[in-house]
RNA sequence: AGAGGAGUGGCAGAGUGGUCGAAUGCGGCGGUCUUGAAAACCGUUGUACCGCGAGGUACCGGGGGUUCGAAUCCCUCCUCCUCUGCCA
């Protein structure tokens, strides 16, 4: 959520940056914010004055009663009625203005970083780096992962359909082992990189949804538990970052680095066709997430550090990959700068997004009221960042396709200590 | 899940309708004393919003209500503790 004071101070810059997202009416939207906030201040001032008068009067009445001047007290009481009426009216006006302001703020996305290219869709993302020396030359008759999955009997989509529904596969045999291996490998790497492992709830309340920005904008993306006002998490970012909601940390406690594994649940409403085939898009999937809370001056260095961490993972998995700088149109609502990682899935000849690493600057921290206190006890909003490290199913898809051989599917070296086998074999 | 109890400043803990943003203790910060430290003593020590400032307003788990006036009374929700039940 933007800070109105910042908007006023950097009006032209913010407008220009928001236009990179394709927000053509950015100027009007920001102007509206400022004028609403102006009204809010004015109304609050008036209300405060009325309340000051009421408080004063109430004190006097108390004194009069104490000293036995009943008649005077009753007379003074009569004066309060009008003040009360005004206070009620102004109070309602203020609440309404505050709500309008919040509504607006909730609807305006984060200001893109200066390096974000303008653009409408994923086609306009900037390819920062492509490392494709691991791209395999597949033999004729190489199969897409969904065919390999049935051939090797490692995931059962039909069973998942039966037990839950489409998009909830059941991993089994070496498939289940491989998923568990990846999770452990990713967590171990995160720990080596200095992240503290946490295992958060996978169900969150409304406040948490607002804190990281899933609510109100993306309500349709989450599964709701409507009888208790809770949601299944779409990513571990939500519970892990919300640990620090309403928290003031000491400056020397930064950076805070947490990592956690959770299943993630996404409704993916309206998804259909080839890109939901097999493991390409699921309603439930496993992911290890890394989260950092840092000093504002350090956040872009940390973003690079996190990108490097993810890059190491895909490299170690021996997958061809590329790194994209997301354009304004593809940038997430809450993010200022995002790098996506895609791995090449050689049989379906597609790049699959497996990680998204973002700097949210103060956008989340402002909603979360997540601040740090410096040596002089000055408080300021911290910066938050997170990244997938990594999402499992698409990595699995690429591994299956790229590593298929006549004898079976080769398991990358780094995972072998975790799987206990180096080849996925037919049943 | 049922019955009972409780939620107050960083922590502990008073306050049951009127100068209460809130006693007191601990902790923190500054100072005196000391070669240094401890002890002792003195002072200071919540957050947010509005205002150039003086200052004002709000906050005693959250929300709503009664009242001229609410930490204090009422309703509701949440959380914690104890007992009973259930369960991995």
From TrEMBL:
<feature type="binding site">
    <location>
        <begin position="353"/>
        <end position="356"/>
    </location>
    <ligand>
        <name>ATP</name>
    </ligand>
</feature>
<feature type="binding site">
    <location>
        <position position="235"/>
    </location>
    <ligand>
        <name>L-serine</name>
    </ligand>
</feature>
<dbReference type="GO" id="GO:0006434">
    <property type="term" value="P:seryl-tRNA aminoacylation"/>
</dbReference>
<feature type="binding site">
    <location>
        <position position="266"/>
    </location>
    <ligand>
        <name>L-serine</name>
    </ligand>
</feature>
<feature type="binding site">
    <location>
        <position position="289"/>
    </location>
    <ligand>
        <name>L-serine</name>
    </ligand>
</feature>
<keyword id="KW-0030">Aminoacyl-tRNA synthetase</keyword>
<dbReference type="InterPro" id="IPR015866">
    <property type="entry name" value="Ser-tRNA-synth_1_N"/>
</dbReference>
<keyword id="KW-0175">Coiled coil</keyword>
<dbReference type="InterPro" id="IPR042103">
    <property type="entry name" value="SerRS_1_N_sf"/>
</dbReference>
<feature type="coiled-coil region">
    <location>
        <begin position="40"/>
        <end position="100"/>
    </location>
</feature>
<feature type="binding site">
    <location>
        <position position="386"/>
    </location>
    <ligand>
        <name>L-serine</name>
    </ligand>
</feature>
<comment type="similarity">
    <text>Belongs to the class-II aminoacyl-tRNA synthetase family. Type-1 seryl-tRNA synthetase subfamily.</text>
</comment>
<comment type="pathway">
    <text>Aminoacyl-tRNA biosynthesis; selenocysteinyl-tRNA(Sec) biosynthesis; L-seryl-tRNA(Sec) from L-serine and tRNA(Sec): step 1/1.</text>
</comment>
<dbReference type="InterPro" id="IPR010978">
    <property type="entry name" value="tRNA-bd_arm"/>
</dbReference>
<keyword id="KW-0963">Cytoplasm</keyword>
<keyword id="KW-0648">Protein biosynthesis</keyword>
<dbReference type="InterPro" id="IPR002314">
    <property type="entry name" value="aa-tRNA-synt_IIb"/>
</dbReference>
<dbReference type="GO" id="GO:0004828">
    <property type="term" value="F:serine-tRNA ligase activity"/>
</dbReference>
<keyword id="KW-0547">Nucleotide-binding</keyword>
<dbReference type="Pfam" id="PF02403">
    <property type="entry name" value="Seryl_tRNA_N"/>
</dbReference>
<keyword id="KW-0067">ATP-binding</keyword>
<dbReference type="GO" id="GO:0005737">
    <property type="term" value="C:cytoplasm"/>
</dbReference>
<dbReference type="GO" id="GO:0005524">
    <property type="term" value="F:ATP binding"/>
</dbReference>
<dbReference type="InterPro" id="IPR045864">
    <property type="entry name" value="aa-tRNA-synth_II/BPL/LPL"/>
</dbReference>
<dbReference type="Pfam" id="PF00587">
    <property type="entry name" value="tRNA-synt_2b"/>
</dbReference>
<dbReference type="InterPro" id="IPR002317">
    <property type="entry name" value="Ser-tRNA-ligase_type_1"/>
</dbReference>
<feature type="domain" description="Aminoacyl-transfer RNA synthetases class-II family profile">
    <location>
        <begin position="179"/>
        <end position="417"/>
    </location>
</feature>
<keyword id="KW-0436">Ligase</keyword>
<feature type="binding site">
    <location>
        <begin position="266"/>
        <end position="268"/>
    </location>
    <ligand>
        <name>ATP</name>
    </ligand>
</feature>
<protein>
    <recommendedName>
        <fullName>Serine--tRNA ligase</fullName>
        <ecNumber>6.1.1.11</ecNumber>
    </recommendedName>
</protein>
<dbReference type="InterPro" id="IPR006195">
    <property type="entry name" value="aa-tRNA-synth_II"/>
</dbReference>
């Amino acid at each position: 959520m933007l800070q109105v004071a910042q908007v006023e101070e950097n009006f032209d810059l913010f407008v220009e940056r928001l236009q990179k997202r394709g927000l053509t009416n950015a100027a009007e939207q920001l102007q509206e914010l400022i004028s609403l906030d102006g009204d809010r201040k004015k109304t609050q001032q008036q209300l405060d004055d009325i309340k000051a008068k009421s408080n004063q009067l109430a004190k006097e009445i108390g004194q009069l009663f104490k000293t036995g001047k009943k008649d005077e007290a009753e007379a003074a009481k009569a004066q309060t009625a009008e003040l009360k009426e005004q206070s009620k009216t102004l109070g309602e006006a203020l609440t309404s203005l505050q709500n309008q302001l919040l509504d607006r703020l909730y609807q305006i996305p984060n200001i893109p970083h200066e390096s974000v290219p303008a653009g409408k869709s994923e086609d306009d993302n900037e390819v920062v780096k492509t490392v494709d020396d691991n791209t395999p030359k597949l033999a004729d008759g190489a199969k897409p992962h969904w065919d390999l999955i049935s051939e090797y009997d490692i995931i059962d989509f039909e069973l998942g359909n039966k037990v839950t529904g489409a998009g909830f596969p059941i991993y089994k045999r070496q498939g289940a082992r491989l998923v568990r291996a990846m999770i452990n490998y990713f967590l171990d790497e995160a720990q080596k990189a200095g992240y503290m492992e946490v295992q958060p709830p996978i169900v969150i309340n409304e406040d948490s949804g607002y804190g990281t920005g899933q609510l109100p904008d993306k309500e349709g993306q989450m599964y709701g538990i409507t009888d208790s006002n809770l949601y299944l998490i779409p990513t571990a970012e939500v519970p892990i970052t919300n640990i620090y909601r309403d928290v003031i940390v000491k400056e020397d406690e930064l950076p805070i680095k947490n990592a956690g594994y959770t299943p993630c649940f996404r409704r993916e409403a309206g998804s259909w066709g080839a890109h939901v085939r097999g493991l390409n898009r699921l309603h439930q999937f496993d992911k290890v997430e890394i989260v950092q809370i840092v000093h504002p001056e350090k956040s872009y260095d940390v973003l690079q550090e996190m990108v490097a961490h993810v890059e190491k993972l895909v490299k170690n998995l021996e997958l061809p990959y590329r790194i994209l700088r997301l354009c304004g149109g593809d940038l997430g609502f809450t993010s200022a700068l995002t790098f996506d990682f895609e791995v090449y899935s050689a049989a379906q000849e597609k790049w699959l997004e497996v990680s998204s690493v973002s700097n949210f600057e103060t956008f989340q921290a402002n909603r979360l009221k997540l601040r740090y206190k410096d040596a002089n006890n000055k408080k300021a909003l911290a910066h938050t960042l997170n990244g997938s490290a990594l999402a499992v199913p698409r990595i699995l898809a690429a591994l299956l396709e790229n590593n298929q051989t006549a004898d079976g599917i080769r398991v990358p070296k780094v995972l072998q200590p975790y799987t206990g086998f180096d080849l996925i074999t037919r049943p």
